[in-house]
């Protein structure tokens, strides 16, 4: 035993001795230091006693981390070993598999047109701060760069304030191909489920095309800068030819709907302004257009977004935690930055409500009145138009300052009051003095028509840019030559559908979710410069049954688009042979009642009706697949309505 | 601190009490093993604890390093490189932008074989969850996880050369298809990045990705890829103000585009119906990078025995590994079975037969000495050098014409000394070892021992008889292949039979389109030994294995010999010999010939290979290797100048380092 001990002693001591051979000699020579060495030795002994404790701390830290890592890995391994179908949770068979068994196969080529925000954008040329991001996604994907360098990212996302095109030295372009919008962020599908189901019945890259475009630009500018419309035209023609002269089925989503409306007009217009496809182009190439969550008549959300860069969700965050968004901690000024950037995007303005008071209602009247919110399943029997509920869902903006109306747009903006605030975060509010801001507030309610004037007043540069690209009115006479201009093409109330009686137009959207319809605003309490002077008054709440919660009046819809915007054109504006639809294109309304996912495992739900989640709705997917495989609207069941859309439409007095 | 204490026993204080020392040393050893001492004290350090502690340490270090790496400024590696090697040259994009070059002509990339990504659209049960994931290209994670499933999905149908039932694997589209082959291994990415600097973007660049496993005409039949390319070129020309497109094919893409040019002008049922002047109207220049116009010898060995130089070397180093049936892998056989279903590999079998590639006694490259070109740079020694050169060629003549020879002696012998027994009539016996090898089916099992022996007894195969050999050993594959490709030389190009699509990718059997203003460039690297012909032997283990393999023991004793590891090498870019990439531009198409009736202009641009000077440079900015040349700054600059509007003359015309003109002279081809 002892020998073993000694041997071990040797083992440990010997090499060290060898290593420090020279200092040893040195010590030997200077024996006088020996005593000093002894004292230091004692010190060392003390330290040695302390050492185990230190080590124990580090050791136990390492140990804990080690445990964590190991458990993590173990879980990861287990997760990977997990069978794909979790026992006890039966995934319902996907429509693709079922329809394949029914014998459906790919017939018509499919074009997918993504909406706003969902398409990815990648960097092709940037400022030095974006070094190393060449051809990386700035928008979409994992958004890691937002966290790493937020200001740099905002600078690159913004467009030029005057032209609405690229700022000098920056080129941000739409990602192309199916990857552009299959997933918005990892795990958050947009088109992926639909693509997968289409693939099951035989679709692939050659008969499925994602018409990705830069969703920040106004529609005509996508053609001017990127020739996106030309590309789309050429792709459709190519797919038409290579798939045995089968017409295409177009599936636009959200803003893609009005983008494609713009395309329909553009493609038949002669070359300098249009695509020169000739008057029969649409009839020849398009079988049907299956609009998902269409925003034909705009969304009220766009107004609040442009006006104060907020929406319902933002307002409720503010209500819960007042200081966070407004505080200048870290000088982030998140909202102001967001506002500045979004105001350079022309496309948001394309979502402003169209049709003015005729469609969206005036001070005393609105098509949806009588709609009860939390009981959206129960139908109220409407007494009369005069029997108005107190919710005032007809009013677009409602300021709680009760004074007489004044015409605020006579007052000129005063530039000197806030000149000190023209800092790095430039919003057009800085150019307005407090006086004008107050006057805006005094002019209490704004309807769909006056809201536009309001925006023209608070954001003159943006609206000036936008007015040359977009229009929000209703045409009196569609044959007026002024309607040949491209600014009218994306407004369904100012254009005729193409002369193509065989096309079918579907309006597929979710219903059953409270959707923003009008807002109650207040002046922002702090007079600090560089902040947005207006905000949604989230303290305003209605009684139990009311549609007013958190300063927002709600109505039926898919959480983003109210039913009236999504369904009106199909329900009335285009139904039969009207002046907007001279050739009598058939229209179908397909509504999908929202059902929240039953369990967490279901993810975002197979029967969801929410604006984006509806892309995973099995009923909707089945409809799309059937149409793509050759079915007509009548064959998939014609109209399918859950909401009051027809009654609401009847109440809108639009000359047809 | 322990060491200071340890000194004490060695100090003259040996006189101190033994016991004391003992105590101290015990103390000492305790300090040396803090863990051991812990064991005795409160917390028990079990094995598990130690493991976790260890794991924790590693994790923490890893995280710290990761953190440091992320904190490191992006320009740091570049800074280090510059500190070591001196300032880097500006990338061509930056340089030419300063010169004022702007995007002018739209650019089309045509990737080569293997480099394009393939993704799954429909698969069998075993490939669940891989929908729209890359099976080929990218991280190749699935190859390791489920290799057999992967092989099954990558294979095509053995009879039709199209999808097997229930499987759809499709090319990735867009620039992502071939910008990086695997993470960090660029193919087109450097070129794209440089083009972007002078203003190119997605609307002016198009990656003509296609399924590189299919034969060229089948890409149109199955995916309508050719129609797509046509429509995209038309679109880009129209949206870019009528500026014609610059096409940049790489490797097999050069043949693919040759096929396209014929296809697009051919009338509709078989072709694209673009009319006789489509190319003249839409194409400014075709800049072939490393184009194997006349095929590559590598393709032969690949089809014959699923191996190439690198694999032969691997076999020489560790003989048992690849042949072992260990784990039931049979790697080579699986690879062979898979790659024999790919028609595209057959497009690269040497074309032109003995006229181009040489016969038993003659080859255009004969007399080539690998180290010669380097020495030639020293002009002063030229005279003596020439003498030496002729000496060497007299001593030893390499018979490159014998693409496959069985045994080194046969490869060197005079042709009159070789006894050859014709294999074509040999009876294919039923193989004895057939039944046990069912799962890995290669056509060799149908041959039997008799057939294998007959093949070996024919001894020497030239470019002409190679085809017969392949027909013999892989009849099904070649039957499929001969419907899509042809390897001969046309006597009369106006013969109506040459309107068939199988001739379109063979430059010796087609005319170039009638486009006198179109320029054709051959850009390729030189200065790397490239496989040219092989010495084979019968594989020792006859059972189940591939019966032939490269004889990697065949080496030459001379320092500068061309024979290494059973492979004769010649000048080239490591994959394509100079002869194949340069001959058409140097002679076949130069001036007005029968292959080039409209007299399109030809330019040869060679890039001398110089390996990267240090590791930090990655794959080098002056490389001449087949794929790495895509990062060669000189090549990128040439391409960008042409894309910005320059003509071949403005680039400086031909730029030649190799003997390509001399060799071309030696080839007697009726022009």
From TrEMBL, chain A:
GO biological process, one term: triglyceride biosynthetic process
Pfam families listed in its UniProt record: LCAT (PF02450)
GO cellular component, one term: membrane
InterPro entries: AB_hydrolase_fold, LACT/PDAT_acylTrfase
Chain segments annotated as transmembrane: 56-79
Gene Ontology terms, MF aspect: O-acyltransferase activity; phospholipid:diacylglycerol acyltransferase activity
Uppermost EC category: transferase
Localization: Membrane
Keyword Cytoplasm part of the UniProt annotation: no
Catalytic activity: a glycerophospholipid + a 1,2-diacyl-sn-glycerol = a monoacylglycerophospholipid + a triacyl-sn-glycerol
Keywords for the protein's UniProt record, in alphabetical order: Acyltransferase, Membrane, Transferase, Transmembrane, Transmembrane helix
Membrane topology qualifier: Single-pass membrane protein
EC number in record: 2.3.1.158
Family (UniProt): Belongs to the AB hydrolase superfamily. Lipase family.
Identification of the protein by name: phospholipid:diacylglycerol acyltransferase
Organism of derivation: Salix udensis
Taxonomic classification: Eukaryota, Viridiplantae, Streptophyta, Embryophyta, Tracheophyta
UniProtKB/TrEMBL annotation, chain B:
Compositional bias (Polar residues): 378-389
Keywords: Acyltransferase, Membrane, Transferase, Transmembrane, Transmembrane helix
PANTHER family reported in the protein's UniProt record: LECITHIN-CHOLESTEROL ACYLTRANSFERASE-RELATED
Region (Disordered): 1-44, 368-389
BP GO terms, sorted: triglyceride biosynthetic process
SUPFAM superfamilies per UniProt: alpha/beta-Hydrolases (SSF53474)
EC number: 2.3.1.158
GO cellular component: membrane
Protein localization: Membrane
Residue ranges with Basic residues bias: 32-43
InterPro entries reported in the protein's UniProt record: AB_hydrolase_fold, LACT/PDAT_acylTrfase
Assigned protein family: Belongs to the AB hydrolase superfamily. Lipase family.
Transmembrane segments: 47-69
Top-level EC class: transferase
Source species taxonomy: Eukaryota, Viridiplantae, Streptophyta, Embryophyta, Tracheophyta
Molecular function in Gene Ontology: O-acyltransferase activity; phospholipid:diacylglycerol acyltransferase activity
Catalytically driven reaction(s): a glycerophospholipid + a 1,2-diacyl-sn-glycerol = a monoacylglycerophospholipid + a triacyl-sn-glycerol
Membrane topology: Single-pass membrane protein
Protein name per the record: phospholipid:diacylglycerol acyltransferase
